[in-house]
Amino acid sequence: MPDDRILTVTMPKWGLSMKTGKIVDWFVSEGDTIAKGDDIVDIETDKIAGTLESPVEGPVRRIIAEPGSDLPVGAVLAVVAPAEVPDAEIDAVVEEAKAAVESGALEGEDEPEPQLVDVGGRTISYVSLGPDDAGVPVVLVHGYGGDKNSWLFVQQPLAEEGHRAIALDLPGHGASGKDVGDGSLRTLTDTVTGFLDARGIERAHLVGHSLGGAVVAAVAKAEPGKVASLTLIAPAGFTPDADAEYLRGFASASSRRELKPLVGRLFSDESLVTRQLVDDLLRYKRLDGVDKALTAVLGTLLGEGDRQAIDTRALLEGVDVPVTIVWGTSDRILPVPDGVELTRVAAGHMPQMEAPGEVLAAVKARL
């Protein structure tokens, strides 16, 4: 039997579309001792680059994956074990790991398919990960122009820790139907509430980003009994200010040249934006009905003088559920508000992508 003191770090699965990851740079070396949660390696996916936090602790005995190598999800990247474990046993684990990659045994594993549900005559696409009987689920709601893939660094880890994590596409976004009606906050709120009812979810921990933050706050205002907690990530509606040029530009952009610099504004580190991420957004924007949908929702976000039209602080007044607010210190889309208790993280407008470990910690603290 293999020594149970030998632990491995494997290629994570960040998002449903991820098949492989490219090793960019290691932050640790063989002989270093790592702790759970330490940043250990940068990995580039087809969507975005991310930093893998160690799931294990102990001395790094072998680093298998060299920078520049593309490896499938599940491939062993490093081996961790106490010094007293013989080198021969470590070498055996390394050889087995390399053989698994070379044989192709790690490729083509089954992955959950997005599901569809009718909510008030609108088709809503969602993905549910984790056990159905895991208790109160976590429901993740993206921002303007985003989709359920916005949670690629959050949803899978929650599921792996035994939580039921559900990411949905709002109307007009992702793979959901493109009918947004009047595009109002009420319409989006009713959709999320209707989604919970359609899936038989009596209570949920709601996590919302940007526009999604305002939406889940409105759900808690309208149906507090359905909400176990709120985690709001750079939520819309906390200040009058917003990067209206970004919002209007995103709604109207029709080419890579127009879209790429706008997407870069979402991140503190613009190098995280991959060509594939921009191509996917451009492909979405060219779908029938998307322009009309984004324009309608834009009218909900922006009011006179290009100021924010939503007042999320007012929505939260009288809401008696635990609320956590997370904000990137380098947010260029929605400025960090004053006079609000919040968790600041080193990120731009997409903390769930740039600082997923801290976002995960904030969500799990409410579970």
Automatic annotation (TrEMBL):
Lipoyl-binding domain residues: 6-81
Q: Does the keyword Lyase apply?
A: no
Q: PROSITE patterns under this entry? A: BIOTINYL_LIPOYL, LIPOYL
Which Gene3D superfamilies does this chain map to?
2.40.50.100, alpha/beta hydrolase
Keyword RNA-binding listed? The answer is no
| Protein keywords | Lipoyl
Q: Under which name does UniProt file this protein?
A: Acetoin dehydrogenase dihydrolipoyllysine-residue acetyltransferase subunit
* Species, as recorded: Pseudonocardia zijingensis
The organism's taxonomy opens as: Bacteria, Bacillati, Actinomycetota, Actinomycetes, Pseudonocardiales
